[in-house]
Amino acid sequence: MVRKTAKSLAGLSALVLVLAACGRGDDQAGGQSAADISQGPATGTITVWAMGAEGEKLPALAKEFEDANSGVDVQVTAIPWDAAHNKFTSAITAGQAPDAAMVGSTWMGEFAGMNALDPTPSSIDKGAFFDGAQRTTEVDGTSYGIPWYVETRLIYYRKDLAKTAGYETPPKDWAGLKDMAKAMQTKAGAKFGIGLQAGGTGSWQSLLPFAWSNGAQLTKDNGGAYNFDSPEMKETLEYYGSYFSEGIADKEAPAQPTTEPDFVSGRVPMFISGPWMMSAVEKLGGEGFKDKYDVMPMPTKKTSSSFVGGSNFVVFKETKNRDSAWKFVKWLTEAKTQVKWYQQSTDLPSVKSAWQDPALTADTKLAPFGKQLDTAQSPPTFATWEQAITALDTEVEKVARSGADPAGALKAAQSSADSIGTGK
Question: Per UniProt, what is one GO molecular function of this protein (predicted)?
C-alpha cells in the first residue's frame, strides 16, 4: 500500500520533463553554499503550500508559530495531491512559487534541477534527522530544505496465527520469513502466506527494502548513473519472485489490494506497510484485535533496511521573505513541534530526539518503526527517478505474474534507465 502522502508521480507531461532537464537558468544545483538566517522573530507574510491532509491540518500548527512571532502572517494553501506537481512546476516556471512548501521527497532532484530551491541554512542541524531522511533533501551534495515527517515500512504479521504455525518469535532473515509464510499456509490455514505487490505502479517500494537489505546500491559511477542490474538486485528479484512462483504470494493480486480484510480474516496474515495501517486493521478487527498482531523489522540478508518516505519542507529561491520563511521551516524541526505535529496528524517525526517523547514511546508497536528508520534508505534524488522507476515496476510485474527471468527483467529496466539518463 502506498500512503496518500507518498504518491507516485508517474505520468509527468512532456513539458514538465523538458523543464526538469533544462532548468530555469545557467546556475547549477550542486555545491551551493547557503546564507544563514538572521536572529530575532519572524515578520511579514509567508505563503505556504501543503498537500492533502497535511495541507488541511497545517494552518492550526502555523497559528502557534504566529502566536510566538506576533509580526508574522503564515498563509497556508491546501492543494490536492493529484494537482500538486503540475501546480508547482507551473508556478516555478512563471516565477510565482510560494515562499515555502511541503514537497514530495521524490521531487527534490527535479525542482533543484530547475534551480528553484534555496539551500538549507547552516544553522539548521542536519545531524538531527534520520540519515536516510536527510539524504532525500540532498541533490549533488547540497541540502535543500528539511525532512518534515517520515514514514517507513515493517512487516505486519498475525501473532496468533504465527503461533499456530509454530512461531513464538518472528524470523530475522530472508529464509526464516519465507519459511514462516509457508507455515502460515500449511499449518494456520492462510490462503497466501504474505501479501506482496505483484508489480505495477509503486511496486518498487515493496521490492527495494529487500534490495537494500541485500546491500544493493541503486547508483554507480560515483552516483552518476542508475544501477538496476547489479548481482545484489538480481538475487533480490529472484527471492521476491519466488514468493509468487511458489504460490506463497498471490500472482493475481489486484492493483488495489484488500489488505485490511484479508489480514483480519487471516486469509493473508502478513503484509508490508507503514504505521498508519495500525489504526486501520484495529478498527476493522474490533475489540481485542490489537493483541492478535504485531510488527517486525524487514528481514536481514546482509543487513535490515527499509524504505524511508515522507515529505520535505523547502524554501523557494524567489521568496521575498527568505528569513521568515526559513524561520518557519526551522521551527518545524524543533522536537516539541514535531511531537505536536505527530499528535495532530500521526505523521512520524523526522527528528530523532522527538522519538524519546512519551507521546511516541508509549506505543510499543510504534517503537520498531523508529528503530527501522535508523537504517532506512531512500532512492536517489535524480530528476528522472519517477520515469526510470516505471520500467522497473513493469519488469517486476513480468517476474511476479508471468515468471519472467529476473536477470532479463533487470537488464531491460537498466536499458530503459540508461536511455532516460539521470537528468543532469
Answer: maltose binding
| Residue range 154-306+383-420, CATH number | 3.40.190.10
Beta bridge partners of 271: 156, 195
* From-to residues of CATH 3.40.190.10 in the chain: 4-152+308-373, 154-306+383-420
Which range, of 14-23, 67-76, 296-305, 321-330, averages the lowest pLDDT?
A: 14-23
* Phi, psi for 145 (deg, rounded to 5): 85, -165
- The whole-number pLDDT of residue 33 equals 58
Burial of 112-126, coded b for 16+ CB within 10 Å and e otherwise, reads bbbbbbbbbbeebeb
Q: At what angle do helices 81-94 and 14-22 cross, to 10 degrees?
A: 50
CA distance from start to end of the chain: 31
What pLDDT does residue 12 have? 32
CA distance 336 to 353: 9
Class level of CATH domain 4-152+308-373:
alpha beta
Residue-wise pLDDT for 348-392, tens only, equals: 999 999 999 999 998 889 999 999 999 999 899 888 998 999 999
- The per-residue pLDDT of the chain, averaged, comes to 90
User: Interior CA angle at 25 toward 20 and 27, to 5°?
Assistant: 100
Handedness of CA 313, 88, 44, 347 (dihedral sign): negative
> pTM of the entire structure?
0.84
